[in-house]
Amino acid sequence: MAKNRENKMTNEITKLELEDLGYDEFFDSQRRSSGFEGLPLARVVAEHKEAYKVKSPNGEYLAKITGKQMFKAVKRTDYPAVGDWVVISESDGEKAVIRHILPRKTILKKKYSDRQDAQVIAVNIDTAFIVESLDRDYNLNRFERYLVLANETGIEPVIVLNKTDLVPKTELDRKTQEIKDRFGDIDIVRTSVVEERGLDELTDRIAEGKTYCFLGSSGVGKSSLINKLLKKDVIKTKEISGSTGKGRHTTTTREMYFLENGGIVIDNPGTREVGMAEANAGIENVFDEIITLSQKCKYADCTHVREPGCAVLQALREGKLDKAKYQNYLRLKKENEFYGMTDAEKRNKDRRFGKLVKKAVDQLKEFES
């Protein structure tokens, strides 16, 4: 009996430590159903070239995947990513081997126009803080892209308007209203690291045991905000340019940090390009107004571009639908469809387009002669 009580206490302590890393009932269920219930478990907290830093109740390890996993991997999502829960074998010193990746609760990924495979941003995220600075970076369409990525996988989005010290309050209020008009009742936090404004509001949105990801372009201040949340300068940043108000980006890898209040945050390298990857559900969620209108269209396969009896175009003509939102919807939908094509389909489409251009040029020559 005494031994059973001791084992129970040990298991409870281990589970509590796992919960400090973001472990919950979802992952416990996945672990049990996968048959890994008694094996060491760790969370991927950083990704390096051909190696990962993982954290477990026993400490931190530099880990690699097995050759068998490399051989079986067909796409990027088959490899571990920051935020993953992995089954490990602890070896000598501070090294480990990753044996298995537990099924993911959520996954953030994006496409690059020159790559077929999607890039994994982070996994098992509860909330995404989408950061834009109130200078040249501010862009409603970019917000919309990130919102689509978050909605696609069921991640709660929060918009962060950073560097509020760079603009007058009247402009800040105007841009805040623009976001509300475009996206409805989405949560908005207005912050300034320089004036330490809005940091308490940001902290209030971070709960113990939950995982948060900071998304945004280079130089918007993601790392500086995380440093403030950590209450120390853990992440290296460069000073803000006096001419542009932009910080020069220094984050080159994704890494997880643990806050005093028990929250978990991930810093990401900035990006200029946010491509859509398998984002049908995300597009429908963000553009639900257009999806609702489309149900009234005359044709079931209406593209909402030129068809007669299109309820979306009718709403646009009557001023009931925001023109910029409509244009961005078409752009993201086409982009998502393009990324969903196979290489052969893309080549065929490019070939058809090339023939169309050639025909137009030939007709122009005949007209000029």
Q: What does the model show?
A:
Mean pLDDT is 79; it is low at 1-14, 239-249 and 342-346. A hairpin with a 5-residue loop joins strand 12 (255-258) and strand 13 (264-267). The protein folds into three domains: 2-101, Nucleic acid-binding proteins (OB fold (Dihydrolipoamide Acetyltransferase, E2P), Beta Barrel), CATH 2.40.50.140; 112-267, P-loop containing nucleotide triphosphate hydrolases (Rossmann fold), CATH 3.40.50.300; 287-349, Probable gtpase engc, domain 3 (Ribonucleotide Reductase Protein R1, domain 1, Orthogonal Bundle), CATH 1.10.40. 38% of the residues lie in helices and 20% in strands. It is globular. Strands 10-9-8-11-13-12 form a six-stranded mixed β-sheet. A five-stranded mixed β-barrel has the order 1-2-3-5-4. Strands 6-7 form a two-stranded antiparallel ribbon. It has twelve helices and 13 strands. Helix 4 crosses helix 8 (280-286) and helix 8 (280-286) packs across helix 9. It has 369 residues and is of the alpha/beta class.
Secondary structure blueprint with pairings:
Layout: H1 2-20, H2 25-33, E1 41-48, E2 51-56, E3 59-65, H3 67-72, E4 85-90, E5 95-101, E6 107-110, E7 119-123, E8 127-133, H4 140-152, E9 156-162, H5 169-183, E10 188-190, H6 199-204, E11 211-215, H7 222-230, E12 255-258, E13 264-267, H8 280-286, H9 288-294, H10 311-317, H11 323-340, H12 343-368
Parallel strand pairs: 3-5, 8-9, 8-11, 9-10, 11-13
Antiparallel strand pairs: 1-2, 1-4, 2-3, 4-5, 6-7, 12-13
